[in-house]
Amino acid sequence: MKSLKILFVLLLIPVFSFSQKYTIRFATVAPEGSTWMNIMREYDAQIRKESGGQMGFKLYGGGVAGDEKDVIRKIRLGQYHAAGFTGVGMGEITKKVRILDAPFLFKNYGEIDYIYSKFDQEMSNSFLENGFVLLGWAEVGFVYVFTNTPIHKSSDLKSTKMWVWQGDPVAESAFKTIGISPIPLSLTDVFTSLQTGLINAFYTSPLAGISMQWFTKAKYILDVPLANSAGSILIAKSMWDKMPEELRNILMKNGRQYMRKLTEQSRKDNEKSLKIMQQKGLTLIKPDEKVLKEYETVGYNSRKSLSGSLIPADLVQRVEKSLDDYRKGKK
Fold this sequence. Notes:
This protein has helices at residues 2-17, 35-50, 68-76, 87-93, 109-129, 169-178, 190-196, 206-211, 237-240, 245-279, 289-306, 313-330; strands at 22-27, 55-60, 82-86, 132-137, 141-147, 163-165, 183-185, 202-204, 220-229, 231-236, 283-285. The protein is an alpha/beta fold. The chain has a single domain (19-330), classed as D-Maltodextrin-Binding Protein, domain 2.
């Protein structure tokens, strides 16, 4: 009798093993245990449930697939199917999206949500034209500048050895507008370079600063966001097209829902992280109105330099006009 039960179980194994028709190999630099990975697991569980086990993610976290440029190349080769990207990775697919990372553009979450909603279809179409489908926006959050010396005005940044993400023309433009020649490095080289003194200033979201322990190498935080770091979940159109419509609908509906949840949670986590870093001894430097105007000018000049060369000029103008109209309406 016992042998019959074992045989019955063995006969069932192939049925369950092959019930999942679509395994989506998903890569991200987010480490295991992070908000990103936790919500991705929730997303995965939900699409498995709604698809009756026909579809699910296989998650590769912690940057095991390489940096974002590596991941894009591997997706195009078919080694992976989808990924979580920041603006740097998205910009490798479509330059248009880099307007969302433009320096000193946004002042609050209301402005961010308004622009993302207004330009969502345009950005989605641009991704699609370049071989990817947008499953949802998942912003990294407001990015702050961290230093080892106090920064009371924009010119004080000139004395720092500032890091810039290698291959990120948007951040590079902002710093060059200030008069800094930043030091380009990959994400994986930042912590070591802070330890050796190759760099002594960097920019990141508070949550990422804690997750990667970069904040332990800084003393000051400039309390004016350099930018709002964009993020998204994208899937290769080639994989998308293989799925029947009912599964695509499940994937898209839940992608939008869970990425919105991720954005809201990231905002809360970033605010908590900023407070934690202050409790750990970092000093928050609040610029006065005159200095804030300096940064607004830096942002305008930086966007002007990117207009036409990286980001379509008409898109820059339309986003700035939309923000101006939104602010006037709020007043």
